[in-house]
């Protein structure tokens, strides 16, 4: 990201895909929010450390930011299940350093858990998912069980029902290929 993009991101209001935390000491709350963001339908989120809830740029605590980045990466790798796709970036804005953690959910993962719990983001609120809600997400996001409608991830075309089925030695399997080379995914 460029400095301009980072500055714009820092100024954004908190939302379903954006959370601010004043300090790196708020990692647990931040990662619960990040888990909720990637589990929501947009399937992505950005967590910014070093920005107060009122958008004031406060910067992260002084110290070894290389070590802090490694620690954040190790915490994410050790505590998110299944493994989360993420990026950690440090930027200096107006003489203060901020740490950005961006993540996204792979479409074939129904939900992620952080430290053994699944969360979901609803607007700016993050809450823990119940067992029933996790099973519902799993059913809704499982392509083999989904009844439609479907949307191509490359060209954006829609189909109501996916009718292409192929027979393999493992049994019948749906085909998710679009003529453009993309894949059909459940349209949420």
Word description of this protein:
The chain is of the alpha+beta class and 188 residues long. The chain folds into 2 domains: 3-137, Methyltransferase, Cobalt-precorrin-4 Transmethylase, Domain 2 (2-Layer Sandwich), CATH 3.30.950.30; 143-186, no CATH class. It is built from 4 helices and 13 strands. Strands 1-2-5-4 form a 4-stranded mixed sheet, with helices on both faces. A 3-stranded antiparallel sheet has the order 10-9-13, with no helix packed on it. Strands 3-6 form a two-stranded antiparallel ribbon.
Which properties best describe this structure?
2 domains, 26% helix, alpha+beta, 188 residues, Methyltransferase, Cobalt-precorrin-4 Transmethylase, Domain 2, three-stranded antiparallel sheet
Helices, strands, pairings?
Blueprint (H helix, E strand, L loop, with lengths): L2 H9 L6 E4 L5 H13 L4 E6 L15 H15 E2 L3 E9 L2 E9 L8 E2 L4 E4 L2 E4 L2 H11 L8 E3 L5 E2 L5 E4 L2 E4 L9 E3 L2
Parallel strand pairs: 1-2
Antiparallel strand pairs: 2-5, 3-6, 4-5, 7-8, 9-10, 9-13, 11-12
Task: Provide a brief overview of the structure.
With 188 residues, this protein is an alpha+beta fold.
Rg calculated over all Cα atoms: 19 Å
Task: Write out the CATH superfamily name of the largest domain.
Answer: Schlafen, AAA domain
**SSE run:** HEHEHEEEEEEHEEEEE
What is the CATH top level name of the largest domain?
Answer: Alpha Beta
Helix-strand makeup class = alpha+beta
Q: Helix count?
A: 4
Strand order, biggest sheet? 1-2-5-4
How many strands, which pairing sense, and closed or not: the largest β-sheet?
4 strands, mixed
By CATH, the architecture of the largest domain is named 2-Layer Sandwich
The termini sit apart by 28 Å
What overall geometry do the principal axes of the alpha carbons give?
Answer: elongated
Kindly give the count of domains: 2
Strand content: 25-35%
Number of strands: 13
Low-confidence stretches: none
Task: Return the CATH topology of the largest domain.
Answer: Methyltransferase, Cobalt-precorrin-4 Transmethylase, Domain 2
Average pLDDT score: 88
Q: Classify the helix fraction into a percent range.
A: 25-40%
């Amino acid at each position: 990201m460029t400095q301009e993009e980072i500055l714009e991101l820092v100024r954004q209001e908190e939302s379903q895909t954006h959370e601010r935390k004043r300090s790196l000491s708020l990692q647990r709350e931040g990662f619960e929010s990040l888990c909720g963001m990637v589990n929501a339908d947009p399937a992505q989120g950005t967590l910014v450390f070093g920005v107060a809830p009122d958008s004031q740029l406060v910067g992260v605590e002084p110290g070894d930011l290389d070590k802090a980045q490694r620690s954040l990466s190790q915490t994410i790798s050790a505590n998110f299940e299944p493994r989360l796709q993420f990026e950690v970036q440090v930027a200096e804005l107006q003489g203060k350093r901020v740490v950005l953690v961006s993540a996204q959910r792979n479409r074939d993962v129904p939900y992620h858990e952080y430290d053994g719990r699944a969360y979901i983001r609803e607007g700016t609120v993050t809450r823990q998912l119940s067992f029933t809600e996790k099973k519902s997400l799993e059913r809704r996001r499982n392509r083999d069980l989904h009844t439609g409608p479907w949307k191509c991830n490359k060209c954006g075309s829609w189909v109501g029902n996916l009718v292409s089925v192929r027979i393999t030695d493992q049994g019948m399997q749906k085909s998710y290929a679009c003529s453009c080379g993309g894949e059909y995914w459940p349209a949420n």
